[in-house]
Write a structure and sequence with these properties.
Length: 286
């Protein structure tokens, strides 16, 4: 079985300056305008302020649309649901779902980081993987919520309308089921990725800041598409097709919408940007 690179499974979490482009697009059809912004969900304090194109689109918009209602993700009820569904309730533990060599390697990592493995013993590998990722990112100063969270808070404070493209339950199921059936490969590759996470993160954020769509597509989409086409279809293609009718319907509203999704959804041949172009929109970068 091929190991699964966690940076390929959840590229929206890891979202060099090049050409002076941007990760914000303006789409127009029949006189109606909407904006789309590609985001990184976790950033460093040094990554703020956001590229100015985000502020330009924000000011032009009447409402903002995110992947989900990210404000409610902090709700205690949602956090309880996440913990409940990401925890084994059948009496088994993490050790029962990983092979002995992988479990031992995880134990070694936890010992080196002074993390009691017992603290993670009832969690499913998806949550353990996210825990390792956020632990390593915090060492790089990646402690700030990203562009979408920042603009969500800004919109709420200024009484702009906000809504989501998918439900919290859909997001919850994605998190809980990540790597299901490939638990060993997921944890093993996550532990290997620890050694390159600094370079991976800086390359992705650098490409995002500069709007280098070719690099973003290479870093976030092409590797997973070539190596794990079924995961690419689930993460990018299927979700883009689910979201597109909602986005297209914005063309018929009197409001101007600013749609903010992970940058991987806006680059490459299967992107929302290409779908808009094929549907008759004129699309240009800000």
């Amino acid at each position: 079985m091929k190991p699964i690179r966690i940076s390929l499974i959840i590229p929206f979490i890891l979202c060099a300056q090049a050409l002076a482009e941007s990760s914000v697009w303006k789409a127009e059809k029949e006189g109606s305008i909407l904006y789309l912004g590609g985001t990184c969900h976790l950033l460093r304090a040094s990554d703020f302020p956001l590229p100015p194109e985000f502020e330009t689109a924000y000011r032009a918009a009447d409402s903002l649309i995110f992947e989900t209602d990210i404000g409610k993700m902090k709700d205690p009820d949602f956090q309880m649901q996440l913990m409940t569904q990401a925890t084994y309730t059948d009496g088994s533990t993490l050790a029962d779902h990983l092979s002995a060599p992988v479990y031992n390697k995880l134990n070694q990592y936890c010992s080196e980081q002074q993390i009691p493995l017992a603290m993670l013993s009832t969690f499913k590998p998806s949550l353990v993987g996210i825990f390792i990722l956020t632990t390593e990112l915090s060492k790089l100063g990646v402690t700030q919520e990203g562009a979408d969270h920042f603009l969500y808070a800004k919109a709420k404070s200024e009484n702009k309308t906000v809504r989501g493209l998918e439900t919290l339950q859909q997001q919850l199921q994605f998190i809980v089921n990540m790597g299901k059936g490939k638990e060993d490969a997921m944890i093993l590759q996550m532990l290997d990725d620890v050694h390159t996470i600094k370079q991976d993160y800086e390359e992705i954020v650098g490409a995002w800041k500069s709007g280098n769509t070719n690099s973003l597509n290479q870093l976030m989409n092409l590797k997973i598409k070539e190596t794990y086409p079924e995961i690419y279809k689930e993460l990018i293609v299927d979700r883009n097709h689910n979201w597109f009718p909602v986005i297209d319907a914005c063309q018929k509203t009197p409001e101007t919408e600013f749609i903010l999704v992970g940058a991987a959804h806006l680059v490459g041949p299967d992107s929302l940007i290409e779908m808009l172009k094929k549907s008759g929109y004129t699309v240009e970068k800000l």
